[in-house]
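Why should sequence recovery work at all? Because a backbone constrains its sequence more than one might expect. Tight turns favour small or flexible residues, buried strands favour hydrophobic ones, and helices have their own preferences. The token representation captures these environments compactly. In the example below, the structure is given first.
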């Protein structure tokens, strides 16, 4: 493809992409194809001769579109969203064109320097404490990772190395590259335990798996809205230390758990960690992958104050709710040296005068892989195109749609019960088992109206409610008009609804509620 062919092809592709976005509200959100649908449509071997772009492009509509799940559809209400906007796409285009795997500063200084500045912008937009800025005295700073999973694994490795080193040095063994030092580090690594609440995302358990450490969960309870409490943490830490003789070294607190958007009780948890010297050494990582986006609006800003002290790292995915396409996982660390101590391996071919002076950032030492993409461009484009006010408006719109859906659910106490406190535009509900008996309606709406605490007047594990809710969920998804996710919380089968796509508006929310009611009534009628 030469430059003129590229010009024509790119214009055609852009037109196609715009039409794709326009067509989304009318497309089924879930595809109807069966597994393996694509192979018979694609030649078994790559083409021998070059093909025209028009021929290649045509296959998008005929072969790819039928197999797409439309995450950008306003009817996508499953998992958490994955946003994309036009300025973000433009950022990807430039990034693809420059294509510099800028692992060291010299490999493309603009790539490194823009990332440092833009991560400071993001930190300020979220109201994160000063300690996470690249300009902070404590040598904090942000780095863009691919995913929250990668961020957690990277932090866990940094924490592992920090703790193993501390324990080794405390024994009087010097860090001099000796066999003895290596043996002690390995011995200590084997005793380390990473923790999170039982509601934390599975990526935390996976991070421990990747880092080769043990992992334990802190139990949460429905009565506590599935938030991690200080009491539960204390009991778990005590057991690990006193009964198991192991060393807790890393804990993830979540702002917005995947199941229910619960927010762990940060102040209470940090107070517990301050109770013992060994607990003060635990690396605290905040996983705010989805809900962290809400820190841009005033109502949620106070949460970030909890991170001023006693928190080592914080992560938020702009690619979930904050208008930047996948991948844009923003990771902030209080002390970059913890990271570089763990991950800096510098063979001769990676040395250069700039790195040697220590005056530049080489982001390869802040991540697991060497090469990296120019991801800050798309964040820069989005933050400038929307401005902080545009970003706030986007979050506010999502919150309003979430509230609308919650209110609609509450308006049908005969059918539904809200299971956990709705937050960050997520509603977690189940069908009441009493709905299955014609006369039944206890007239409550699942909350007692104070502080959003849920009053559970129905037995938690109600098999009948579980069965009906599951059937309703499966019926809705089988029709593909909207796409929802289910989960099981404290034995309760629930449906999660979160519809905050950039194209979503009230009409989509109301339609989704009607679909929910109709499907429920259909199941109840048998
Ligand atoms: N943390 C939370 C709270 C999540 O909800 C998710 C995914 O939804 C993740 C982490 C993992 O995100 P990623 O796909 O960026 O690894």
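From this structural description, the recovered sequence reads:
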């Amino acid at each position: 493809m030469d430059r003129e062919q590229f010009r024509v092809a790119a214009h055609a592709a852009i037109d196609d992409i715009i039409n794709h976005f326009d067509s989304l509200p009318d497309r089924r959100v879930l595809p109807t194809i069966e597994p393996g649908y694509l192979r018979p449509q694609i030649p078994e071997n790559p083409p021998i001769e070059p093909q025209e772009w028009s021929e290649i492009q045509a296959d998008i509509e005929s072969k790819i579109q039928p197999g797409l799940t439309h995450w950008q559809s306003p009817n996508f209400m499953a998992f958490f969203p994955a946003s994309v906007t036009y300025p973000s796409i433009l950022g990807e285009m430039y990034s693809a064109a420059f294509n510099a795997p800028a692992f060291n500063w010299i490999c493309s200084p603009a790539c490194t320097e823009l990332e440092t500045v833009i991560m400071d912008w993001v930190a300020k937009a979220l109201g994160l404490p000063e300690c996470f800025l690249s300009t902070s005295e404590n040598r904090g700073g942000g780095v863009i990772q691919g995913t929250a999973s990668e961020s957690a694994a990277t932090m866990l490795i940094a924490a592992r190395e920090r703790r193993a080193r501390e324990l080794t040095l405390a024994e009087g063994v010097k860090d001099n590259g000796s066999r003895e030092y290596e043996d002690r580090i390995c011995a200590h690594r084997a005793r380390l335990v990473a923790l999170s609440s039982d509601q934390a995302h599975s990526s935390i358990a996976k991070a421990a798996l990747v880092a080769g450490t043990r992992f334990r969960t802190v139990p949460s309870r429905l009565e506590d809205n599935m938030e991690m409490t200080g009491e539960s943490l204390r009991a778990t830490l005590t057991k690990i230390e006193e009964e198991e003789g192991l060393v807790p070294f890393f804990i993830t607190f979540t702002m917005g758990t995947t199941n229910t958007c619960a927010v762990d009780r940060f102040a209470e948890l940090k107070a517990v960690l301050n109770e013992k010297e060994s607990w003060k050494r635990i690396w605290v990582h905040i996983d705010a992958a989805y809900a962290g986006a809400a820190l841009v609006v005033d109502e949620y800003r106070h949460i970030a104050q909890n991170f001023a002290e006693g928190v080592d790292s914080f992560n938020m995915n702009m690619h979930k709710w904050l208008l930047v396409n996948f991948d844009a996982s923003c990771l902030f660390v209080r002390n970059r040296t913890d990271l570089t101590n763990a991950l800096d391996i510098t063979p001769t071919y990676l040395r250069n005068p700039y790195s040697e002076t220590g005056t530049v950032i080489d982001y390869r030492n802040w991540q697991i892989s060497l090469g990296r993409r120019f991801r800050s461009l798309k964040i820069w484009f989005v933050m400038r195109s929307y401005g902080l006010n545009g970003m706030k408006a986007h979050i506010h719109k999502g919150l309003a749609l979430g509230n609308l859906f919650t209110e609609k659910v509450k308006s049908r106490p005969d059918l539904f019960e809200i299971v956990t406190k709705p937050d960050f535009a997520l509603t977690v509900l189940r069908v009441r088992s009493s709905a299955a008996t014609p006369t039944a309606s206890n007239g409550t709406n699942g909350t007692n109206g104070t502080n959003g605490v849920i009053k559970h007047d129905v037995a938690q594990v109600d098999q009948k409610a579980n069965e009906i809710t599951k059937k309703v969920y499966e019926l809705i998804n089988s029709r593909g008009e909207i796409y929802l996710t289910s989960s099981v919380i404290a034995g309760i089968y629930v449906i999660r609804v979160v519809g905050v796509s950039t194209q979503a508006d009230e009409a989509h929310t109301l339609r989704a509620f009607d679909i929910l009611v109709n499907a429920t009534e259909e199941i109840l009628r048998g």
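A few observations help interpret the result. Residues 80, 147-149, 201, 203, 254, 256-258, 287, 289-290, 317, 329 surround pyridoxal-5'-phosphate (CB under 6 Å).
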